[in-house]
Design a protein that fits this description.
This protein is of the alpha+beta class. Helix content is 72%, strand content 12%.
Length: 331
């Protein structure tokens, strides 16, 4: 029973549509042709896009890999572009009417720091100039932070070089001091040898005098003088040895201080190399892909417009047919 009623209802609907078919077909055909003509007459538009990489620097992780760190979040760039922040600046620079300025669309490519900027325009060359101008404005803004980072690195390098020059001056002074100590040490060694030889000669003369059995008073006095002189020479010899030991210690300390300073210079040179490497890892904003036009126009989409118009018209006029049928039955 229900199936029979459904069949009857369906036949009624089809009968209504067939009864007023020209009210559906003619307006639909007319509007579809109109949409087709309008789509054909509309000027074609191309899509022009570019890829921008914001200024960044590479940071080495604990695992030895390098990770990109951008100075400005690409999502922030995308928001500014989509909010038309630069439209007035670009329009003024290129002498364009801001009311006819094309819509700029930006997006952050997934899992990258790249920003894709695109626009649709019938004049492809004009759109390319707009994207170039946008890139220049972005570059000036973004590169300021990269410049600040580079200036900071340059300042660190300069301070390291100043410290290196200071330490090199100290090493030069220490080497001059070392030369003086070495020369003084040689003089002491030479004087020590002279005292030792003189003492040995006095001791030899004293031994010869002691072998004499009958000594005169003058010889006895000479013996006493020999003894005093030998004692003084030995005392002075001991003092020279102590002074020589202190000079050797002073020489070792100066050498050790020079080695420490030279090691510090090596450390500073390594730090300067690391800073230069860090500076080399800083990249300014780059235009990864030049503004490029699509191969074919992206609008108007004639076939799609005609298809959508046909479907919508069929739906609208079919509903209108049922509505008219309803009004007729009510009368």
């Amino acid at each position: 029973m229900n199936e029979h009623e459904d069949e009857v209802a369906l036949m009624d609907y089809l009968s209504i549509i067939w009864k007023r078919k020209w009210l559906i077909v003619i307006p639909t055909l007319f509007l579809v042709i109109a949409v087709g003509i309008i789509s054909f007459l509309l000027p074609p538009k191309w899509e022009i896009d570019a890829l921008i990489q914001p200024s960044k620097f590479l940071v080495q992780t604990e695992g030895g890999r390098f990770e990109e760190i951008v100075f400005v979040d690409p999502k922030q760039m995308v928001g500014q572009i989509n909010e038309a922040t630069y439209d007035n600046l670009i329009a003024t620079e290129l002498n364009l009417d801001v009311r006819e300025f094309p819509k700029l669309k930006a997006e952050n490519l997934r899992d990258t720091n790249l920003v894709r900027v695109s626009t649709k325009e019938k004049d492809a060359e004009k759109a390319k100039l707009i994207l170039h101008s946008l890139f220049n404005h972005l570059k000036r803004q973004l590169d300021k932070k990269a410049d600040i980072e580079i200036k900071g690195v340059d300042s660190d390098i300069k301070s390291k070089e100043i410290e290196k020059l200071r330490i090199e001056g100290e090493i030069k002074g220490n080497k001059n001091k070392l030369d003086i100590v070495k020369q003084r040490k040689k003089d002491i060694e030479r004087e020590t040898n002279d005292i030792r030889k003189r003492t040995e000669a006095l001791e030899k003369e004293q031994r010869l005098s002691l072998k004499k059995e009958n000594r005169s008073e003058s010889e006895s006095l000479a013996m006493l003088l020999y003894s005093n002189e030998i004692q003084q020479s030995l005392q002075y010899y001991s003092e020279l040895n102590e002074l020589l030991s202190s000079k050797k210690i002073e020489e070792e300390n100066i050498n050790l201080e020079i080695e420490n300073k030279e090691e510090r210079i090596n450390q500073i040179e390594n730090e300067i190399d690391n800073l230069n490497e860090k500076k080399g890892r800083i990249d300014y904003t780059q235009l990864i892909k030049e503004p490029t036009s699509s191969l074919y126009p992206v609008s108007p989409k004639k076939k799609l417009n005609v298809l959508i118009a046909g479907i919508l018209c069929l739906m609208v006029f079919t509903m209108l047919v049922f509505f008219l049928e309803y009004l007729e039955k009510q009368k």
